[in-house]
Amino acid sequence: MEALGLRHPVSPEQSVVVVATHDCDLAQDPEGEPAIEVVIGRLAEKDGNCTHAKNARKLHIEFAGDANFWAEFEATQKVTVSKAALNDFAPRQDALLSPKNYAIFQMWLASRYRRSAFPDEFERRLTNKDAKLHEKIAKAVRPHGEMIVGVFFDVDGGQEVKREGPNDTYTLDITILHAAEPDFEAAENAAQTAAEAIEKAFREKLFNAETRSWQQIELHSCEPLSESVLTYDIFKRLKRWRLEHISLAAEPQQSVLPE
Question: In sequence order, what are the residues at sequence separation of 6 or more whose Cβ sits closer than 8 angstroms to the Cβ of residue 64?
Fold first, then answer.
């Protein structure tokens, strides 16, 4: 890494570098494709809120092998290097990504360019300074770390509907996707706890008990679901809500699976 000048800007002595270029591109003649992309990370203690590609800005992921360790990568730390120069080096064999973590790393790389899009008016209502429901969701999910894989929204059944006025409500179904391993029951309980907190927050802010009616956003459901039983049919109807999506600044945030 030092020979190529690939050092983490804050912790150069703890640098970890991953080639983030498709293997087909690596095989192309350097004459046509002379550069490849790499991501520079560093050794780090695991933060469950940055696992599972939930945070589009930052990823914490485990490398297995004789030199088992956790590393932190940031989306802004991508650089290009000469393919010819890299050809003089071989990847280390004592630290590898498992097939599952390899897929997570790919999802994280793609997530910066595949963020779920929700109607501007829906986002405005969710982030309204009086309700601050986006912060309530983040607060409900954050304590459970990597037990929660992601938060997914189904807004208006996937239909794009223009809403006007507080009585013209968006309908919202929330799925709290939880991990199946290593402790299914603990993860399920965590997701259930988060779901109950989110439902409570929506009812307190948007439900009028006297008129039995919703304002702004009607929460149809907020349910936990295991990643082991998420069907492709369900997945197609959902959009991931990234908890840094509405800019909870640049602090570590949560939401994920690929959109």
Answer: 95, 96, 97, 98, 101
User: How many other CB atoms are there within 10 angstroms of residue 178's CB atom?
Assistant: 26
Closest of 62, 54, 71 to residue 252, by C-alpha? 54
Query: Which of these CATH numbers, 2.30.30, 1.25.10, 3.20.20, 2.60.40, describes 2-111?
Result: 2.30.30
Helix/strand/coil (H/E/C) assignment for every residue in the chain: CHHHCCCCCCCHHHEEEEECCCHHHHHCCCCCCCEEEEEEEEECCCCHHHCCCCCCCEEEEEEECCCCEEEEEEEEEEEEEEHHHHCCCCCCCCCECCHHHHHHHHHHHHHCCCCCCCCHHHHHHHCCCCCCHHHHHHHHHHHHHHHEEEEEEEEHHHCCCCCCCCCCCEEEEEEEEECCCCCHHHHHHHHHHHHHHHHHHHHHHHEECCCCEECCEEEEEEEEEECCCCCHHHHHHCEECCCCCCCCCCCCCCCCCCC
Instruction: Render pLDDT for 14-37 as a digit per residue (tens, 0 to 9).
Output: 999 999 887 777 777 777 788 889
Nearest Cα residue to 150 out of 47, 257, 245: 257
pLDDT digits (tens, 9 = 90+) for 156-208: 988 888 899 999 999 999 999 999 999 999 999 999 999 999 999 999 999 99
What does pTM read for this prediction? 0.63
Count CB-CB contacts under 10 A for residue 129. 5
Q: How far apart are CA 158 and CA 138, in angstroms?
A: 23
